[in-house]
């Protein structure tokens, strides 16, 4: 009897110890409720619409007439619906861009929508967005530019009061908001009430961020605050829409200069791409990128709208790396999202639904090498297959490299793997590998580093297997894994790539063999009846080429598009500071570079002059900055001249390449009127950094 009682007592003790096992202790910085809400959204859109939509600029100077804003059919409902069709969960409205024009009837400045003809001066575009979001079940956020090129008080303490009051108006009248978005562009030249001067600020201290953020905390306590230094969500460090292969949710921002406090626009932004393992703050990344080449609508960029599969690729590289995707929408001059953009968004949304509709691991038998306290009811691997992102498989404290066998019971074909951690307990896992049991042996099919709120591994080929193995190969603490899934992305053909060499020969290539490639030269969509690509060919000047890959009669890729300026076979450089590399500026090779950086002269302006070989009608020109992720020598202020004899020059355009540091695409400049000329001269007035200029390519159209 004593033995029986002893055994029963031991069993009770073991059972109690097992079922009362304490949950894992949190590791490192943890997310707030607002950050958890933000993480669950995954994707949202930022909307750029305002005076720049009508001036064909990216950054207004601040002297634009409010009367320009008079859309014929503005519809916040159509714009928000376009975002929703793409699977996005909310929109961030650019309520005020750098030109200082406010899309709501603010009391802080006359430079606002009440001075426009829209609804006879009674319009309030922010209120229309608020109502559209409410109707469609979408969340709303606001962007109010700290920099104001219109306000005469910018750069003084008085402006800070104005800016903070603008935030109070927005947060008071248009909530609830999910995010308060703060740009890093600060200070520089502007209209400033007619002063037309350059104004510098101390980016560390001018905006008094601690107290400015306090306005958000008080009026919109559930909204996250975005900026280069957060404090809730950080900029990923590029405007290309992707985070690093490794991307930590924790981050410690650093100022470019030792001993200084970091601030928006004053941070080592490249560190935001990967974040900081064991960083001081929980500050996950947002990946912002525009659906079009530019942030505002430009008619000339209608052919540059990102395709559904390009958006899917960005999804994997942002949301799939634990960050969020913030896609820029650019309503056109009618005040709606263009039909081309809507089509791409809708098809992307359908592609997401098709890919992630079914978790092929559902119904699998999961066998873990370790379960915390052996309490499978509370910490077992079965929670990986439910729909709750905060239930989880956990291990004992000393077990940081467990394994999991996933028996699918029958062969399944997949090409995407998804994992996530319960981030309420911090970001714990450093690395993992996935194996498949193929031909009676384990073969590694994937590996990854950081997981955090979400990790998607896109395989390079389809995998068919009935049994998988997950190996956690590194973790800072006992794991708390909340999700495991496998999915099948639909089959698709990769669109072709179109290029042209200096001799004017057009080539169209694909990454993998296809049955045929068909193309058009008139801007129409290619079909099997269009011209068959048989080899390189010479196209007429200013060609608009579209091409698609075809596999049989049933499969067609998305359309590749390129708008080419004048062919450069007869072009010659007639004057340049560095004649050894000058031809690189017109060689149709975006990776070669014309550079004057290593020369002793540091004076500006610097110029390069081109002979087109014959008289051409010039309607626009383009400057392509260097493509190697370096910033030295990138021109941000220019003058463009034309000539008929190469001696007497006429100035036909001047201005700035706004936002070029974050948007390293070709900078198109449309002339006020077309010019007939044989020669052109590109003059660099100012560069982002360095003592010389760099040019990847110059083009005229």
Automatic annotation (TrEMBL):
<dbReference type="Pfam" id="PF01120">
    <property type="entry name" value="Alpha_L_fucos"/>
</dbReference>
<protein>
    <recommendedName>
        <fullName>alpha-L-fucosidase</fullName>
        <ecNumber>3.2.1.51</ecNumber>
    </recommendedName>
</protein>
<comment type="similarity">
    <text>Belongs to the glycosyl hydrolase 29 family.</text>
</comment>
<feature type="signal peptide">
    <location>
        <begin position="1"/>
        <end position="22"/>
    </location>
</feature>
<dbReference type="InterPro" id="IPR008979">
    <property type="entry name" value="Galactose-bd-like_sf"/>
</dbReference>
<keyword id="KW-0326">Glycosidase</keyword>
<keyword id="KW-0732">Signal</keyword>
<dbReference type="InterPro" id="IPR000421">
    <property type="entry name" value="FA58C"/>
</dbReference>
<dbReference type="GO" id="GO:0006004">
    <property type="term" value="P:fucose metabolic process"/>
</dbReference>
<dbReference type="GO" id="GO:0004560">
    <property type="term" value="F:alpha-L-fucosidase activity"/>
</dbReference>
<dbReference type="GO" id="GO:0016139">
    <property type="term" value="P:glycoside catabolic process"/>
</dbReference>
<dbReference type="Pfam" id="PF13290">
    <property type="entry name" value="CHB_HEX_C_1"/>
</dbReference>
<dbReference type="InterPro" id="IPR059177">
    <property type="entry name" value="GH29D-like_dom"/>
</dbReference>
<dbReference type="InterPro" id="IPR017853">
    <property type="entry name" value="GH"/>
</dbReference>
<dbReference type="InterPro" id="IPR000933">
    <property type="entry name" value="Glyco_hydro_29"/>
</dbReference>
<dbReference type="GO" id="GO:0005764">
    <property type="term" value="C:lysosome"/>
</dbReference>
<dbReference type="Pfam" id="PF00754">
    <property type="entry name" value="F5_F8_type_C"/>
</dbReference>
<dbReference type="InterPro" id="IPR057739">
    <property type="entry name" value="Glyco_hydro_29_N"/>
</dbReference>
<keyword id="KW-0378">Hydrolase</keyword>
<feature type="domain" description="F5/8 type C">
    <location>
        <begin position="525"/>
        <end position="701"/>
    </location>
</feature>
């Amino acid at each position: 009897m004593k033995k029986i009682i002893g055994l029963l007592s031991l069993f009770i003790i073991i059972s109690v110890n097992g079922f009362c096992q304490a949950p894992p202790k949190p590791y490192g910085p943890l997310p707030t409720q607002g950050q958890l809400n933000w993480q669950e959204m995954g994707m949202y859109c930022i909307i750029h619409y305002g005076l720049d939509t009508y001036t064909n600029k990216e950054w207004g100077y601040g002297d634009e007439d409010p009367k320009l804003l008079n859309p014929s059919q503005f519809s916040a409902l159509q714009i928000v619906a376009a975002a929703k069709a793409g699977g996005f969960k909310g929109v961030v409205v650019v309520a005020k861009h750098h030109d200082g024009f406010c899309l709501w009837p603010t009391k802080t400045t006359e430079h606002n929508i009440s001075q426009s003809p829209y609804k006879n001066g009674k319009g309030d575009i922010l209120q229309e967005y608020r109502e559209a979001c409410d109707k469609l079940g979408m969340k709303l956020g606001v962007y109010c530019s700290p920099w104001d090129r219109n306000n005469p008080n910018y750069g003084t303490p008085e402006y800070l009061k104005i800016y903070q009051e603008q935030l109070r108006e927005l947060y008071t009248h248009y909530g609830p908001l999910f995010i308060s978005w703060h740009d890093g562009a600060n200070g520089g030249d502007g209209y400033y009430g007619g002063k037309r001067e350059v104004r510098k600020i101390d980016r560390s201290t001018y905006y008094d961020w601690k107290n400015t953020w306090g306005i958000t905390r008080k009026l919109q306590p559930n909204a996250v605050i975005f900026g280069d230094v957060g404090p809730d969500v950080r900029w990923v460090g590029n405007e290309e829409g992707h985070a690093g292969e490794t991307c930590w949710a924790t981050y410690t921002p650093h100022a470019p200069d030792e001993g200084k406090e970091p601030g928006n626009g004053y941070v080592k932004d490249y560190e935001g791409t990967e974040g900081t393992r064991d960083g001081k703050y929980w500050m996950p990344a947002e990946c912002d990128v525009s659906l079009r080449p530019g942030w505002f609508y430009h008619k000339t960029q209608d052919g540059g709208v990102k395709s559904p599969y390009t958006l899917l690729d960005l999804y994997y590289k942002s949301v799939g790396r634990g960050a969020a995707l913030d896609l820029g929408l650019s309503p056109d001059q009618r005040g709606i999202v263009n039909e081309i953009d809507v089509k791409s968004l809708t098809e992307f949304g359908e592609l997401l639904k098709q890919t992630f509709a079914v978790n092929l691991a559902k119904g699998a038998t999961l066998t873990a090498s370790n379960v915390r306290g052996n309490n499978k009811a509370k910490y077992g691997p079965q929670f990986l297959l439910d729909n709750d992102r905060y239930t989880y498989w956990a291990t004992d404290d000393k077990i940081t490299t467990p394994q999991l066998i996933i028996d699918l019971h029958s062969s399944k074909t997949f090409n995407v793997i998804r994992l996530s951690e319960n981030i309420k307990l911090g970001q714990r896992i450093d690395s993992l590998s996935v194996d498949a049991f193929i031909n009676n042996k384990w073969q590694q099919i994937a590996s990854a580093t950081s997981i955090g709120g979400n990790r998607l591994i896109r395989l390079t080929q389809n995998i068919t297997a009935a049994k998988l193995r997950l190996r956690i190969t590194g973790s800072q603490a006992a794991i708390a894994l909340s999700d495991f899934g496998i999915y099948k992305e639909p089959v698709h053909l990769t669109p072709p790539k179109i290029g042209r060499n200096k001799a004017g020969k057009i080539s169209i290539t694909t990454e993998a063999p296809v049955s045929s490639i068909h193309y058009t030269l008139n801007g129409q969509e290619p079909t099997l009846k269009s011209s068959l690509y048989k080899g390189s060919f010479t196209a007429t000047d200013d060609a608009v080429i579209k091409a698609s890959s075809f596999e049989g009669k049933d499969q067609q890729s998305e359309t590749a598009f390129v708008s080419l300026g004048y062919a450069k076979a007869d072009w010659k450089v007639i004057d340049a500071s560095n004649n050894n590399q000058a031809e690189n500026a017109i060689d149709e090779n975006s990776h070669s570079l014309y550079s004057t950086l290593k020369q002793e002269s540091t004076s500006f302006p610097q110029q390069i002059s081109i002979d087109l070989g014959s008289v051409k009608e010039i309607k626009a020109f383009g400057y392509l900055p260097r493509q190697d992720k370096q910033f030295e020598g990138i021109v941000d202020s220019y003058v463009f001249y034309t000539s008929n004899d190469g001696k007497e020059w006429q100035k036909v355009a001047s201005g700035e390449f706004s936002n070029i540091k974050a948007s390293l695409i070709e900078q198109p400049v449309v002339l006020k009127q077309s010019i007939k000329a044989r020669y052109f001269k590109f003059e660099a007035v100012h560069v982002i950094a360095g003592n010389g200029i760099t040019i990847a390519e110059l083009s005229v159209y």
